[in-house]
Amino acid sequence: MKSLPKHSGAFRVFALGALLALATHALAQTDPLPSWNDGAAKKAIVEFVQTTTTQGSPQFVPPAERIATFDQDGTLWVEHPMYSQVMYILESVPALVKAKPELAKVAPFSTVLEVLKGDRAAISKLTMPDLEKLAAATLTGMPVATFQAEAKKWLAEAKDPRWKKPYTELTYLPMQEVLKYLRANGYKTYIVTGGGQDFVRVYSEATYGIPPEQVVGTAGGTKYGYTKDGKPFLTKEPKILLNDNNAGKPEGIHLMIGRRPQMAVGNSTGDQQMLEYTKAGDGARLSMLVLHDDAKREYAYGPAKGLPATKVGALTQALYDEATKKGWIVVSMKDDWKKIFAFE
Amino acid sequence: MKSLPKHSGAFRVFALGALLALATHALAQTDPLPSWNDGAAKKAIVEFVQTTTTQGSPQFVPPAERIATFDQDGTLWVEHPMYSQVMYILESVPALVKAKPELAKVAPFSTVLEVLKGDRAAISKLTMPDLEKLAAATLTGMPVATFQAEAKKWLAEAKDPRWKKPYTELTYLPMQEVLKYLRANGYKTYIVTGGGQDFVRVYSEATYGIPPEQVVGTAGGTKYGYTKDGKPFLTKEPKILLNDNNAGKPEGIHLMIGRRPQMAVGNSTGDQQMLEYTKAGDGARLSMLVLHDDAKREYAYGPAKGLPATKVGALTQALYDEATKKGWIVVSMKDDWKKIFAFE
Q1: C-alpha pair distances (Å), B64 with each of A215, B53, B212
Q2: With contacts defined as CB-CB under 8 Å, which chain B residues touch A223?
Q3: For the segment B163-176, what is each residue's pLDDT rounded down to a tens digit?
Q4: CA nearest to B206 within chain A
Q5: What ipTM goes with this model?
Q6: B269 pLDDT higher than 60
Q7: Which of A145, A273, A133 is nearest to A201 (CA)?
Q8: By the CB < 8 Å criterion, does A250 face chain B?
């Protein structure tokens, strides 16, 4: 009789495969959302992902249709005391005034110089048309590549006044986990922001793992032209193509993505229509609202639920009531998030 | 001495791995572009893909930056005698007139009815403002979902007059191979078309394997609203946000993708700026022009190279000369393509 090995090669290959399968299974059992406390919100996210990605589930969504959209300010990162991009606009004024000294005595540029000199109260003098004027002056009129370099430089140097950290470190760890969890399950994650599309695209890949082509934001036109030596380039124009707020969010999603998201997350009235549009689709859809109710670890503002009112990222009682009525999930930062920032 | 198997389990696992590696290598050696004749164009495509995707190559492009953009009409599918979407617009007029009988006697609707009754010469009466009026009447004013259903129905029924086949079968097999070859090498493939973004998105996934979010086209606005029972929906508005032709192509690429492509392919003057913009980037960039010089198997038109002039997808001698001067690759349908359609 020929001597046979106790475990034949074929068996070992099989055993190796089984081992790999076990390891994969073990990984799948690891908590994908470790910074979330157990509760309705975490449960809803996990159930949504499982129900839409498990083959044979009645609410299975084919990989190509797995789209999840996230507001940025107040949803993925801190928006108080002021949106980061507004800080960029204000802090870009000195360089602008240096290049055009005649602006130093002209409002709203003069007002911004007062604010930056320490007169924080002067900020309340700035009206919406003032901000639009400042935005046009600091965000447009230059080649796209120049803007990208300037924004990148500012992001590397600027610090949030409370945590003294770069803005890009003030992202919410629980939301970073949701982004990764969704992507690990075949979802394409998008930012759909009222902020400037070109601004957010500068850091979205490094900060959130979201590539520029998956950032939908308030977008201006560009103009194609040539340098003196014939090299083509694009100049940022002071012309708004998409105001990606309120109804502009579903409109922007249609323009840039062309599909209704399976999941959407926001935190303020500017996200209302995106959450409505998402939840109104067929099958399993998840709409979520982040409630800033943690004054100690982050900020507390509403005015929903009696929280202090704010002009920056308001979540009204009416929106809160709509969320409850329509089965959206409200995430309490205080109760649902074990940890808010990675640096904690 | 213990009896040892001639080939231990570990060796067999190794051997299996080596076999798999060999098989992969063999697959890589298979011609990725079998419908292309050997020549400068095929060589340029293969070299471009190898040089940008081989680790260690000085012109290696990280996977996230691998973007390739393709014009559609005349580049990916037949555009003569008339763009498919114009046929859709014309053939949608009878249903429009049925709903609004008063239009039957009003130009340009009456002119279209003459054309459809067989008076092909009447088509020359249609001016650009006429076409815009017809486009607004047939492509806007309805919910997005209604438009998508109507376009889908038309695409399933309409036939090209020469081959008597659905338009979606008149795609160029050699270009389908390029799309697949690029995707197999980590490229994201985009359509960047002067045609309607919403129209092309209806069939892009089934026809080219390109999902809706990777179609950039001439895009109109939409308006968010609610049905009587409160369900949100978007209505197509007669307002152009992006005219994705000529300079509008690089502008649209910036708006929708936010990166400069590594490779771009077009066939007419409407693609000039996209090809310039692409080729002007750093590192290895490939710009290609398809020359319709095969009257027998498809169509022949220029007016470049003395080919007949056309109003539909003209490739001027000036553009041909620019291609030569700037190192773009000109693809001759006659000489470079072994086979034009899959159904041949």
Answers
A1: 14, 11, 19
A2: 247, 251
A3: 999 999 999 999 99
A4: A64
A5: 0.91
A6: yes
A7: A145
A8: yes
